[in-house]
UniProtKB/TrEMBL annotation:
Naturally occurring in which organism (per UniProt): Geobacillus subterraneus
Segments forming domain PRC-barrel: 1-75
The protein's name in its UniProt record: PRC-barrel domain-containing protein
One Pfam family here: PRC
PANTHER family recorded: SPORULATION PROTEIN YLMC-RELATED
UniProt xrefs under InterPro entries: PRC-brl_dom, PRC_barrel-like_sf, Spore_YlmC/YmxH
Residues of the signal peptide: none
Amino acid sequence: MMRISEFQTKDVVNVANGKKLGNIGDIDIDLDTGKIRSLIILGAGKMLGLFGREEAIVIPWQNIVKIGADVILVRLHDADGG
C-alpha cells in the first residue's frame, strides 16, 4: 500500500522524451470504485507566482508505466508532456 503523501514526494518523468514533469499536486479518484483515475501535476508558477500558474498536466492512470522508489514513469505524447 502507498500513501498519497508518498506519491507527492516522487518526481514524475515522461519516458517518451525523458522530461521531468514535476511532482504530483493532486489525485483524481473515482468515488464509486475507490480507484485512482488520474494524477495531476500542478503547473509551475510564472515569474515568482505573480502572474498565475501554467496549466496543470493531467496524467490518466493507464499512462503510468512504473512507480519506483523515487520516480513515477509516465508516457505522454502531447504538447505539455512531450
